[in-house]
Amino acid sequence: MHRQNLENLIKEEKDSILRSHNKSMAVVIVCLFFFLPAFIFPPSVTSAMTIGKEKEIAEEYMKAIKQSGLIIKDPIIAELISNVGNEIVSTLPPQPFKYSFYGFNVGNFNAFATPGANIFVNRGLIAALDNVDELAGIMAHETAHASFRHVAQLVDKSKIVNIATLAGVLAGILVGSKSDGDLGQGLAMGSLAAGQSAMLTYTRGHEREADQKGFDFITQTGFSPTGLLTGLKKIRAADFYGGDSIPDYLKTHPGTMQRIKSLEIMLARYKNNPNKTKPAKKDYNFDMIKYRILGMNKTSKESDIIFSKLLKKDPDNPAYNYGFAMALAKQLDFDKANIYLQKALKVKLFDPLILLEIGNIDLQKGQPLKAVEVFNGIKDDPAVKTSVAYSLARAQIELENFSEAKTNLLSLIDIPLIPFPKAYYYIAKIYSNEKNPSLTHYYLGHYYAQIKDTKNADIHFRRSLETLTDKQKIEKANSLLKELKKKK
Fold first, then answer.
1. How deeply is 488 buried, as exposed, middle or buried, from its count of CB atoms within 10 A (0-12, 13-18, 19+)?
2. DSSP letter string over 20-86?
3. Per residue in 119-136, pLDDT tens?
4. Which residues pair with 103 in a beta bridge?
5. Which CATH number applies to 285-349?
6. Domain ranges of the chain
7. What is the model's pLDDT at position 59?
8. Is 102 helix (H, G, I), strand (E, B) or coil?
9. 233-289 residue pLDDT tens
């Protein structure tokens, strides 16, 4: 009975997520994928769109999506998505594009891919799933769309060759995911009308192909192919709750019921195959990261309701305690957060995610020495290495250990989509302490550019150029000044 009640509670929370998803337009899975040589897939699945053209589209779209500020920069969440995606891609033959995987900070139940093999997973999707196999199944499906270049075929067939027009469609969908669904829908429609009224929607044949190939990908990994089936069933549930309000050409998964039946047949055949071999399954700490997402993104009232129900049914569950601690820390209730972190740690001894937050609370409470002790114990753990470098640097600055702090901060600023923009601010502070005005202004310029304060970014980059001698930094400052001028 206890187990059944807990399952009902989890189902209730997932249903809530699925219903809230439909209050705004779903982020459509608009994909422009890459070419694979004919010897890998039959000629019928190739597209006439060149790789060069797709790279142009990919570059323009990624600029827009980065400027939206919706890419999840939390290294722990990003690492989960990237690791799962890379395990799937490891089963593929050589590809003309490099796959990249990102978290998308939107509560809708969705995943989508963009030109140039950039694949995105909404935080709402992770929060609604039960295990990493379901996440991998949905990501494998998107990867399969990429390998077949399904939307590239659609774009070519509809004669959309204007990159600006296509970027407008994608931008409209992006706006719809971020704010008002009708606004994004209107922008998408307008862009289509401005082009040639193309219907960018997957066919049932596309979906069947992606299911089959995604299933094949999964069977070569440590993930269970059952996750693709159960994940698809959750998509069907999401479509059921009010999905008819979405225009046909923006619907992303046609023929879901028939696809579920087909996958059930594939799964039965797979289970009856005595010769199947798979790599060992890896531990992706899915539950901990799922509840981290819930704790970080729900309001205080929502968090109290969700986690009080969960913990009432299973008070010792480390993921529930950890997620609630994240919510409490966000509310600056550090003492209470620490209580729940300690409860989680009793079950998951030495867990780096839990220890990271314990150290962060020590730091917030003005105890940098305690924080450094915690951080030093987990600084080499790949699950938290990036986050620890930033937190450790902050503690070292508090202790006036500027040399080691600078080393940790400099290790962060070369990461694409830097997860901690304030790292630039702290580096500038260190160079100011070293009486190095050129680098102080240079890094302050970066900091203000990251937080989209173009006026101050412009001022500091210009002041840095008065005394900078490093050629690479001079080129970078001038390049960023040109970008800032365009934004103005």
1. exposed
2. HHTTSPPPP---------TTTS-GGG--SS-HHHHHHHHHHHHHHHHHTT-B---HHHHHHHHHHHH
3. 889 898 999 999 999 999
4. 121
5. 1.25.40
6. 16-271, 285-349
7. 82
8. strand
9. 887 776 544 443 333 333 445 567 788 888 999 999 988 876 667 788 888 999 999
